[in-house]
Specification:
Length: 245
C-alpha cells in the first residue's frame, strides 16, 4: 500500500480524532515519509539539501534581535519536522513551554496538535511545524517565569520576523499549509476576515500562490471550546484528501 492509499484509508475511517483510544492506537506508519519516494510530488530540492539550507537559516537567525521579542526570549524557536514534508503547520508564536524547550507546539495546545496529526495517520516527525514569530511574545516581558503571560505577536513583530518563515516555506515547498488560528491565518492570507469564516476553505498564499493553504482553529481554541473539534476534523479530512490526490 503506497502513501496515498494509506491516507485514503485513514479518510475512510470516520472515527473522531479526539477519541483518546483512537489517538493512542493510531497507526504510526509512514503516510508521508520522504517525498523522494513519491514520483508524483514536484520537489525543487532534494531532502538533504533542504535540511542543509534549514540548518544554515537556523544558524543565521538563532541570535536574532531584530524585534523586541528577541531581548526577552529564553530560546529561539525555529521549527521542527521533515524538511521534505508536503504538509506544514504554521501557528502564531512560541508560548511558555516552547520558549523553554526551543520547539514549537509542545505545551497543552501542542499535545493536542500532536493528537490531530496522529489521527491523520502521521507523526510530528513526518510533517513540519513552525510559527509566524520565533520568539515568545509576552504580555509582561519582565516576568518570563509567569505562566499565562502569552500574547499574540504584534503586527510589526510579525512583519520583522516574516522573512524567516517565508524562507522556511521556500526551502520546504510543501504541497499544503495548515494555518493554525486567527493570527496566523489573517497574517499569511493578508486578510481581516474572521477565522470562523476563513476556516475550512482552500486559499492560495499571496507569497506562494502554488501552495494550497487551509486555515483552521488553533488547538488552544479547542482547549477552550471543545465544540470546535468537529470543525477542525472536517478541515483535516480536506487536507488529507488533498494530500492523497
Ligand atoms: S521574533 Fe523573529 S524578528 Fe523578533 S527577535 Fe525573534 S527571530 Fe528576530
Amino acid at each position: 500500500m503506497d502513501a496515498k492509499d494509506k491516507i485514503k484509508r485513514a479518510l475512510a475511517q470516520e472515527k473522531m480524532w479526539f477519541s483518546d483510544a483512537y489517538a493512542t492506537k493510531g497507526i504510526r506508519q509512514s503516510a508521508i515519509g520522504n517525498r523522494q519516494s513519491d514520483p508524483t510530488v514536484n520537489r525543487p530540492l532534494p531532502t538533504a539539501k533542504k535540511a542543509k539550507q534549514l540548518a544554515a537559516l537556523y544558524e543565521q537567525y538563532k541570535g536574532c534581535l531584530a524585534c523586541p521579542l528577541g531581548k526577552s526570549r529564553i530560546k529561539f524557536v525555529f521549527g521542527v519536522g521533515n524538511p521534505d514534508s508536503p504538509l506544514m503547520f504554521i501557528g502564531e508564536g512560541p508560548g511558555y513551554d516552547e520558549d523553554r524547550k526551543g520547539e514549537p507546539f509542545v505545551g497543552r495546545a501542542g499535545q493536542l496538535l500532536t493528537k490531530i496529526i496522529e489521527s491523520m495517520k502521521l507523526t510530528r516527525e513526518q510533517v513540519y511545524i513552525a510559527n509566524l514569530v520565533k520568539c515568545h511574545p509576552m504580555i509582561n516581558p519582565k516576568t518570563p517565569e509567569v505562566r499565562g503571560n502569552d500574547r499574540p505577536p504584534a503586527p510589526e513583530e510579525m512583519e520583522t520576523c516574516k522573512p524567516i518563515l517565508l524562507e522556511q516555506i521556500r526551502i520546504i515547498r510543501p504541497k499544503v499549509i495548515c494555518l493554525l488560528g486567527s493570527t496566523s491565518s489573517k497574517a499569511m492570507l493578508q486578510t481581516q476576515t474572521p477565522i470562523s469564516k476563513l476556516r475550512g476553505v482552500w486559499n492560495k498564499l499571496p507569497d506562494f500562490p502554488e501552495i494550497d493553504a487551509m486555515p483552521t482553529y488553533h488547538p488552544a481554541a479547542l482547549l477552550r471550546n471543545p465544540v470546535l473539534k468537529k470543525d477542525v476534523w472536517v478541515d483535516m479530512k480536506r487536507i488529507m484528501a488533498r494530500l492523497a490526490e
